[in-house]
Structures are given as C-alpha cells and as structure tokens.
C-alpha cells in the first residue's frame, strides 16, 4: 500500500458541539447557533440533531423552526470557539506534527515514520479521538481523512460524517470518488468546471485519468498539472501562487434556480469575494458576471470596468445593473450557475487618488472603512452577522459540516 502523509481533521458541527459541551442540558437535542440574540437573521451553525430535520447552516431562523419546532437557539460566541480551537490544537500537537490550523474547526497533521502506514495512522486518529473525549468531552467529535497528500486527506475527511474516518490513496482512487460530482472537489471552480466540461470531462475518474500535461493545457496554468498529480497521490506541498483576482462560483441547487433566489446567491458570492479582497488589502477595477441559464439553455457573461475599489456596496450596484441587463435580453426562468470575479487588482497602498470621487491616494474612503468595520463584526460574531441587504447563502459539499 502507498504511504500516507497527511491527516485532515474536521470538527463536527463545531460551534453547536461546543455549546452542547458547555451546557449539558443541550446534549442530544437540536441546537442552532445564531449570529445574534433573538429570532431574526440566520443560523451560523447547527447540531447534527437539528440537521436530522433538514436544518442547515445559513438557513433563516423561521424556516429552521418550521422544520424543527423544538430547535434550541443560542447566540454565537466566537471567542469561546477560538478558545476550544486552541485547546484541541494543543492535544493534536502532543500526538503528532500539527502542520497547519486550516480554520477554526479544521486541522492538518503531517505523518512520518510508522504513521505513514494506514494501520498506524488509523490508530493515531483513534488515539486523538480518545484524547478529545477524555480531556475535553464526548460532545466534541471530529471526522478524519487520511491521505497520500493534503488534497486527498481533505476530500477523505468529508466522506464520513459525523465522527468518521476514511482514507484516499492511489490504492483506492479514483473509484472511491466515482459517485461524487466533479464540482464538489475543492479547487474545481465554475471557471475550471466550464473548461474541463468543454474538454469532454464530466466525472472524477475522467479527470483522474488525464495526462497531467494535458490538464495544464485545459486549466491554462500549471495548477491543472498540480491538481491531477495531487489526485494521483503525489506529495506536492501547498504552494504560494500569485493572485490574479478574487472570485466565487456556484452550481445552483434546484431550490435556488429561480431568478429571485439566484440573484440573492450572487449577492452572497460578492460579499464573500470582496471581503477576501479587502482582507488582503487589495482593490479591483473590473467586475465580471457569468450566468449559466438552464431554461432556455445558454449562458450570459458581461464585464464592467470601474475605478479601483474594495467597497462591497459598489460592486453590488454593478451586479444589480448587470442582472437587469441580462433579464432584458435573455428572459430566463431557470438559472443553473453563477460565477463572479474581481480582476485588475491593485494593492490599496498603490491606488491613486480620484479627482471626481471621495478617494485619497492609498487610503480607504468612508464606505470602504465601513465595510472593514463590518468585516471585524462578522469575524468576531460569526459570518453574516451583518450583511448588505438580502442575500442567500449557498454552501456546497465541502463547505457544509
């Protein structure tokens, strides 16, 4: 059997599990974590007991109550979750090499020596599960993926939830993933999916069997070669790439293919993209919207050049104008996919002043400063605590948990 190099750990329903640990009366009951006090807004997390009734993260609270009338709501406590993240990280670090803390509820562990064998890696996972159980509590569980590299380990970690363990290596690839959609793989964005579909590739086994150099041509960059080699189990470390833009895409679930819902999903994608742009202190001067149309079948794409900005409201205004233009021309009644992209990026520190706009050289204007303040609130109290009007979150397979 091929050697294993990485364990990817995903804490199960982390926020809700922490609350169940802190408050024993919540254990084995449906729990929803809200962005703020009260019955308004949406859920930022849900326990597995709540998910059993169809409750999902980012769901409207009233909708969650309709599905699960006995759901118990608690406000998000981000500092508490960070505290548990640090406790868990210390436990993992005692047992193995904690290579990365990928997020507040995701960890990456490097394997070496005997632990590169599946038997020993599996025992290591069980030992860490026992340690969390004994040192913190039974309410906190995790799913683990054991892989030949970080990509395969991450995919494996999503295959059996909650509290599961799966493995991926050249010994069971690609058949183990034959039933998973290609666009559910991390790294397969809407733009990449369009390219691989145009090349006649529609499944994970088909992309797995690509020659890596052919994949480079399809992607239009070395990332295609890297991706296929990672699927083959090669140990290619996480690399630092030069960013050319920021974007998000989504293949829409059936309930979100209406014109209204798909438009709200586009607003959510923009908020996520511009928040990342601002996080990295960049601005963008080009906005692209791609809309895949299911009925009547086709697509619509348009780009708009603008001044360099990192203001969410500015890009939301552009987005609204493009949707109006698309509807006037296409008159669709079913949308299949959305792709938004911010390009022509420039560091804020290098942005010039604008004579006819409230914009000083290399400084945030008033609206951008407000956006930065909202970012801080959302980091502290949970995503979507404050939003720019109505949007509709649409989390995919590798974002759910």
Overview of this structure, please?
With 401 residues, this protein is an alpha+beta fold. The chain has three domains: 1-172, Reverse transcriptase/Diguanylate cyclase domain (Alpha-Beta Plaits, 2-Layer Sandwich), CATH 3.30.70.270; 178-231, DNA polymerase, domain 1 (Orthogonal Bundle), CATH 1.10.150; 246-381, 2-Layer Sandwich (Dna Ligase, domain 1), CATH 3.30.1490.100. The chain is 38% helix and 21% strand. It has a five-stranded mixed sheet. Strands 9-12-10-11 form a four-stranded antiparallel sheet, covered by helices on one side. A three-stranded mixed sheet has the order 3-2-4. Helix 6 (150-157) links the parallel strand 7 (142-147) and strand 8 (165-168). Helix 4 crosses helix 5 (118-135).
Q: Describe the global form.
A: globular
CATH topology assignment of the largest domain: Alpha-Beta Plaits
Q: Would you identify the regions where 5 or more consecutive residues have pLDDT less than 50?
A: none
Output the number of helix runs. 13
User: What's the CATH class of the largest domain, please?
Assistant: Alpha Beta
**Measured on Cα atoms, how large is the radius of gyration?**
22 Å
> Count the strands?
12
Query: For the terminal residues, how far apart are their CA atoms?
Result: 30 Å
Mean pLDDT: 89
Q: Main beta sheet: strand number and arrangement? A: 5 strands, mixed
In which range does the helix fraction lie? 25-40%
Structural class computed from helices and strand pairing = alpha+beta
CATH superfamily membership of the largest domain? Reverse transcriptase/Diguanylate cyclase domain
Count of spatially separate domains: 3
**Strand arrangement, largest sheet?**
5-6-1-7-8
Strand content: 15-25%
